[in-house]
Design a protein that fits this description.
The structure is a single chain. The chain has 288 residues and is an alpha/beta fold. The protein has a single domain, classed as Alpha-Beta Barrel (TIM Barrel), CATH 3.20.20. The chain is 45% helix and 13% strand. It has 11 helices and 8 strands. Strands 1-2-3-4-5-6-7-8 form an 8-stranded parallel β-barrel, surrounded by 7 helices. Strand 2, helix 2 and strand 3 form a beta-alpha-beta unit. It is globular and about 60 Å long. The protein starts with 8 loop residues before the first strand and ends with a helix. Bound molecules: pterin-6-yl-methyl-monophosphate. The site of pterin-6-yl-methyl-monophosphate (PMM) has 19 residues, from strand 1 and strand 5.
Length: 288
């Protein structure tokens, strides 16, 4: 991937859908989507995550032809402008065509469980692939899920997806893990995961954290009526989470407002750069 700096990357969200959770309908027109993608880049995004299917609870699946119609022109145009693009899809064919159109990363919120051909596509293309934790794929998204220990169980279930990806031929360095905030998880689960991000970073794969504007943030800011939480306040809360994620070692954060999270991640990187080396490293340098 070209010129991505040594700090937590900013993945800007571009939903080319009529019905996504926070930005559904805004960028449904391809020309508007392309403009918004360029704006995301200008405001600090390193990667644009293009999706043509909403994963909000209760969403109806779009058919494959429609999904392709939504994402391909946008990917082609943004790739031609030099953008690094991830394709947010649960369909192997969409992932494959998106890669051909210029996308570089596959982002599958079902971690290969929705379409059995997905991991094979990632392996053949040797493309980085996001494996997100989710127990239900749209049709079961409203089911309530029980965890005795959400952090341990999500990590164990991610390990199983990682193992299958490796078995299918995906190189370990191409695996990106994502705890799937808000997917088969309530607010309590999401906060518990955010309190334990280091454990996800310890999986030794790149870690993506995607909290941006999600319902548990609105519920914190406006507990009586989450729908009333202002977008700017949600983005401020998201930027704080981006800083916490960066501090925990996240490779990237997926956000709707790149500017605020880019500032947060830059500050964390600056502080990290000024941290004294651990004693063990100092000893090694002295003896070098
Ligand atoms: N969340 C949404 C869509 N795609 N991809 C990854 N890897 N992780 C996520 O948590 C995730 C995702 C839903 O949020 P949106 O409707 O705001 O895009």
């Amino acid at each position: 991937m070209s010129e991505i700096p040594e700090r937590t990357r900013i993945m800007g969200v571009l939903n080319v859908t009529p019905d996504s959770f926070s930005d559904g309908g805004r960028w449904f027109d391809p020309a508007k989507a392309i403009d918004h993608g360029l704006e995301l880049l200008r405001s600090g995004a390193d990667i644009i995550d293009v999706g043509g299917e909403s994963t909000r609870p209760g969403a109806v699946r779009v058919d494959q032809t429609e999904e392709l119609r939504r994402v391909l022109p946008v990917i082609r145009e943004l790739a031609a402008a030099g953008a690094a693009i991830s394709i947010d899809t649960m369909r192997a064919v969409v992932a494959e065509e998106a890669l051909e159109a210029g996308a570089r990363i596959i982002n599958d919120v079902s971690a290969g469980l929705s379409d059995p051909s997905m991991l094979g596509v990632a392996a053949r293309a040797q493309a980085p692939v996001v494996l997100m934790h989710w127990r239900g794929y749209l049709d079961r998204a409203n089911a309530s899920f029980h965890y005795d220990d959400v952090v341990a169980e999500v990590i164990a279930e991610l390990r199983a997806r990682i193992a299958e990806a490796v078995e299918t031929g995906v190189r370990t360095e191409n695996i990106i893990v994502d705890p799937g905030l808000g997917f088969s998880k309530n607010a309590e689960h999401n906060w518990q995961i955010l309190a334990a991000l280091e454990a996800f970073a310890d999986l030794d794969h790149r870690l993506l954290v995607a909290a941006s504007r999600k319902r548990f943030i609105s519920g914190l800011l406006s507990p009586d009526d989450p729908a009333l939480a202002a977008e700017a306040a949600k983005d401020q809360a998201t930027a704080v989470i981006s800083a916490i994620a960066a501090q925990a070692g996240a490779w990237a954060v997926r956000v709707h407002d790149p500017a605020s999270s880019a500032v947060a991640c830059r500050v964390v990187a600056a502080i990290a750069a000024h941290r004294p080396a651990p004693e063990s490293e100092k000893d090694e340098n002295e003896h070098a």
